[in-house]
Specification:
alpha+beta, six-stranded mixed sheet, five-stranded mixed sheet, 14 helices, 26 strands, globular
Length: 592
């Protein structure tokens, strides 16, 4: 049985882990790093780049480089490149395919199953979109788990003593806070809250705008319309942000950032930690309400917390750590790696789902996880009211039913409008699905008995059913919405992903073959010149003919549309030249 990998599919970076000898370990990327940049790029010759390779060329290929796609999960966002439209699920699937490949190389075996983490505040559509991305990548997603919960699972493996823990998770694009109780091998989420559009990307953007304004004041040149310059500034801003976590100031230097009146201009400025913290103070303050809400929903005070765990790269910012101290009165724990703990927790859950439960330290008992749904679930009733069926922070899995009736006399069908959110009116919440129950027995308004059932699985994914208790007619859906990909779209995306994997390998083979072929052609030409008149005419003519044919095939080979049949033809021509030129290559190679 192949092992289940744990994947932290992050906004800025992603990480993959697997359990080895009862211990979760991080799978290194192909460059040896513990994380992989969540970046996908398409080169002008059709090559697809993922991770570090995509990040390295972002400055020169910014319009064809996709970053922070996680922020678009579950939305109708898409990007069109070379006439092809890519949805967030498709781009995320490409990142997942790279993580899957890294894990397979690390383990030396095929990987087909995964546990993938999502922000605790992801709604149902965003969770399903993440699951769809895994399916496109060729993974059976055994469970979707909330990121703070996953971090607590990683922490609980080594700290099984009874305690209440706050997980403060501030990543590249999302913020979550969860209150979690650990005791006797059980990890129970008491409450969760957050903001799906708050994170390191927002801090970077504040710094980018500061750099652009200051450069304009200094040079009277606006860089905001220069794509290449802005990409360089974004990279410089991210570096500066990281440096300011350990230094009081940093030097931002980008030579030859642009030109003015034919003269080159350089970006050269210094920013202090105090200036940076001042420009992001309001963003950090936005974490206050979710923290208070989570504590209130869990019915505990900050003084009852045993630990505060910091998760996500943005928690390295000193001002963020100070905000946590101010809110909780506690020094944040440094017992876990903020970049790795989420993926490790997912790997622990994956191992547990395979029946290989891990024992919590100090308890002698297997870890048991009890998670919650982050948002309330409702249906729209008369007057546009959102009538709640499931309250937020309900322990999963969950099943709740409620009886409703018709609003008009002799109504033959009803529309079930499913909502997610905390507002009292339907229009102010997120629509996550609609369906119609038909064939209701005609009766005066208020007489029919319609039972609506909400069934939420351990992934937090919802199934809704409605049943007429009189006729027994029933209709149900696993929530779908316009923002979701259809099964047909998912199947097509899976086929495209397989095709891409094949194309990537073909291009890789082509690059390697063309490199070898060009070296052979250069050697052959040099040897012909060195041999001069010492070579008999028949051999010389044969070598020239074979060399000419190979050159023509190489000239016609385009990396953006290369096919295996072309490579086979080039290989055959290369072998032919190697045979006909074998004698002169051995005799005259290396002569001046």
């Amino acid at each position: 049985m192949s092992r289940v990998i744990g994947i932290d599919l992050g906004t800025t970076n992603s990480c993959v882990s697997v359990v080895e000898n009862d211990t979760p370990v991080i799978v290194p990327s192909k460059t040896g790093a513990s994380t992989t940049p969540s970046i996908v790029a398409f080169t002008k010759n059709g090559e697809r780049l993922i991770g570090e390779a995509a990040a390295r060329q972002a400055v020169t290929n910014s319009e064809r480089t996709i970053t922070s796609v996680k922020r678009h999960m579950g939305s109708d966002w898409s990007v069109r490149i070379d006439g092809k439209e890519y949805k967030p699920q498709t781009i995320s699937a490409m990142i997942l395919m790279q993580l899957k490949k890294d894990a397979e190389e690390f383990l030396g075996e095929e990987v087909t199953e995964a546990v993938i983490t999502v922000p605790a505040y992801f709604n149902d559509i965003q969770r399903q979109a993440t699951k769809d991305a895994g399916r496109i990548a060729g993974l059976n997603v055994k469970r979707i788990i909330n990121e703070p919960t996953s971090a607590a699972l990683s922490y609980g493996l080594n700290h099984g003593e009874a305690q209440k823990v706050m997980v403060y998770d501030l990543g590249g694009g999302t913020f979550d806070v969860s209150i979690i109780e650990i005791g006797e091998g059980i990890i129970e989420v008491l409450a969760t809250s957050g903001n799906n559009h708050l994170g390191g990307d927002d801090f970077d953007e504040r710094l980018v705008q500061w750099i652009v304004r200051k450069f304009k004041d200094m040079n009277r040149v606006d860089l905001s319309k220069d794509f290449a310059a802005m990409q360089r500034i974004r990279e410089a801003a991210e570096r500066a942000k990281k440096e300011l976590s350990t230094s009081e100031n940093t030097h931002i230097l980008q030579p030859y950032i642009t030109q003015a009146k034919g003269e080159p201009l350089h970006l050269d400025m210094v920013i202090t930690r105090q200036e940076f913290e001042s420009m992001i103070s309001d963003l950090i303050a936005e974490t206050e309400d979710p923290v208070r809400n989570a504590l209130s929903d869990a019915h505990i005070t900050p003084g009852q917390l045993g630990r505060v765990l910091l998760v996500g790269g943005s928690t390295r910012i000193p001002a963020v750590q100070q905000k946590v101290r101010d809110l909780t009165g506690k020094e944040p724990s440094r017992n876990i790696n903020p970049d790795e703990c989420v993926a490790k927790g997912a790997a622990i859950l994956g191992s547990t789902l395979q029946g290989r439960g891990l024992v919590a330290a100090g308890t002698g008992q297997d870890l048991l996880l009890l998670d919650v749904t982050p948002l309330s679930l409702s249906i729209e009733t008369v007057g546009g009211v959102a009538t709640r069926i499931v309250e937020r922070n309900t322990t999963l899995p969950a099943r709740y039913s409620q009886i409703f009736s018709t609003a008009a006399p002799y109504q033959r069908n009803v529309e079930i409008h499913v909502l997610q959110g905390e507002r009292p009116m339907a229009r102010d919440n997120k629509t996550i699905g609609k369906f119609r129950l038909k064939g209701i027995k005609p009766a005066p308004a208020g007489v029919p008995q319609i039972e609506v059932t909400f069934d939420i699985d351990a992934n937090g994914i919802l199934k809704v059913s409605a049943r007429d208790l009189d006729t027994g007619r029933e209709q149900s859906i696993t929530i779908t919405a316009d923002d979701r990909m259809s099964d047909t779209e998912i199947r097509q995306a899976m086929q495209d992903a397989q095709n891409y994997a094949s194309q990537d390998q073909t291009r890789k083979d082509a690059i390697e073959l063309l490199g070898e072929t060009n070296k052979l052609l250069v050697r052959t030409e040099r040897c012909l010149k060195n041999a001069g008149k010492q070579l008999d005419r028949v051999t010389k003519k044969q070598v020239k003919n074979d060399s000419g044919r190979l050159q023509k095939l190489v000239a016609k080979c385009r990396l953006d549309r290369v096919e295996e049949s072309q490579l086979a033809e080039i290989r055959a021509a290369k072998e032919q030249l190697e045979q006909s030129a074998d004698q002169i290559l051995r005799m005259y190679d290396g002569q001046l």
